[in-house]
Design goal:
Number of helices: 13
Oligomer: single chain
Pfam family, one: XdhC_CoxI
Low-confidence stretches: 335-347
CATH class of the largest domain: Alpha Beta
Strand order of the largest sheet: 12-11-10-13-14-15
Number of strands: 15
Domain XdhC Rossmann: 165-307
CATH topology of the largest domain: Rossmann fold
CATH superfamily of the largest domain: NAD(P)-binding Rossmann-like Domain
Region (Disordered): 325-347
Shape: elongated
Organism: Azohydromonas caseinilytica
Number of domains: 2
Biased composition (Polar residues): 329-338
CATH architecture of the largest domain: 3-Layer(aba) Sandwich
Distance between the termini: 74 Å
Structural class: alpha/beta
């Protein structure tokens, strides 16, 4: 499944290339609670077709009513539109806690610029798009920093290539995790050189490669929008992948296994492969959040939840880690064993 922002831009570009009138709508400011973050986009075609989202659905319906059912799409320069100024509007449009949402409406974006933007995203570039409000002039250029903001003169948004996930191992857990990642907008690659696993891979949309894990990670070229998770339980495979991934800019590197296996893995990577304490600190293992998961689907939920939290910049409390939770649940020494010592002391 393609990342929603890229899907919106690609679809909008196709509509405009076909000569259809359409509008790009971008969330540029929010006050209070808001269903969608700043930078979220949707496209609205002249016949009411919608792709993407700027709210939970009510604002999309109102935009269709305003600009399709009650007339036509606006023309000319971009303009700003605000929802939720009053409590009545906030209730009407489903904005929680009286939130306010400001949108930028861009009538008929240039199809050539949209095509160039999508091609840059497909090539893996992070792109900055700026719209000058007084005349609608659009500038697009590669950038190293994600940003989304608005001033009285311009609206700036950043579009990035899809987040990517590389899984080592093609077993049942990988199938569940790959499916969840695809629906979360990730591009998924799965590596497994073992014929008994790779031969039965069946997740449509996830690319399967059969080489060795270290080669697969090198060819994957992990960047700051990449995650690598080792799932085989086989040190000969998982360690090779982790060795490469922990030296990369990947934002998330994890490996499945028990606390004992995780400790042994860290010792191997330090002693035999020379990974530094700082590099090993980046390794998330045992991977996932502690939710008492036992089955492959439940474990996949645990891993995907942690991965998304890290992606979204959420600082997770230590109590949610598998290691911390299981250590807290470990049986404590019985107080009965201390009774003879207490009696002896009293005597």
């Amino acid at each position: 499944m393609e990342h929603v922002d890229v899907m919106v831009l690609r679809t909008l570009g196709e509509w405009r290339a076909q000569g259809r009138r359409a509008m790009l709508v971008t969330v540029v400011r929010t006050w209070g609670s808001s269903p969608r973050p700043v930078g979220s986009v949707m496209a609205l075609r002249e016949d009411g077709a919608v792709v993407g989202s700027v709210s939970g659905g009510c604002i999309e319906d109102d935009l269709v009513h305003r600009h399709v059912h009650a007339g036509a799409l606006p023309e000319g320069k971009p303009r700003l539109l605000t929802y939720g100024v009053s409590a009545d509007e906030a209730h009407r449009f489903g904005l929680p806690c009286g939130g306010t949402l400001e949108l930028l409406l861009e009538p008929d974006p240039d199809p050539a610029q949209l095509l160039a933007l999508v091609q840059a995203l497909d090539a893996g570039r992070l792109m900055r798009r700026s719209v000058r409000l007084r005349d609608g002039q659009v500038t697009q250029a590669p950038t190293d920093t994600a940003e989304a903001h608005a001033t009285t003169d311009e609206v700036v948004n950043t579009f990035g290539p899809a987040y990517r996930l590389l899984l080592i191992g093609a077993g049942a857990l990988a199938e569940c995790l790959a499916t969840m990642a695809l629906f979360s907008g990730f591009t998924v690659t799965v590596c497994d050189p073992r014929a008994e696993y790779a031969g039965h891979w069946g997740v449509a949309g996830a690319r399967l490669v059969r080489g060795m894990p270290d080669d697969a990670v090198a060819e994957f070229h992990p960047d700051a929008r990449s995650a690598v998770v080792a799932l085989t339980h086989d040190p000969k495979l998982d360690d090779l992948a982790l060795l490469e991934a922990l030296r990369s800019p990947a934002f998330y590197v994890g490996a499945i296994g028990s606390r004992r296996n995780d400790a042994a893995r860290r010792a191997r990577l330090a002693e035999h492969f020379g990974l530094s304490p700082a590099q090993l600190q980046r390794l998330r293992g045992p991977v996932g959040l502690y939710i008492g998961s036992r089955t492959p689907p439940e474990i996949a939920v645990s891993i995907m939840a942690e991965l998304l939290a890290v992606k979204n910049g959420v600082t997770l409390p230590a109590s949610l880690s598998v290691r911390e939770a299981k250590e807290q649940q470990a049986p404590q020494p019985s107080s009965i064993s201390t009774i003879p010592e207490a009696l002896a002391a009293a005597a």
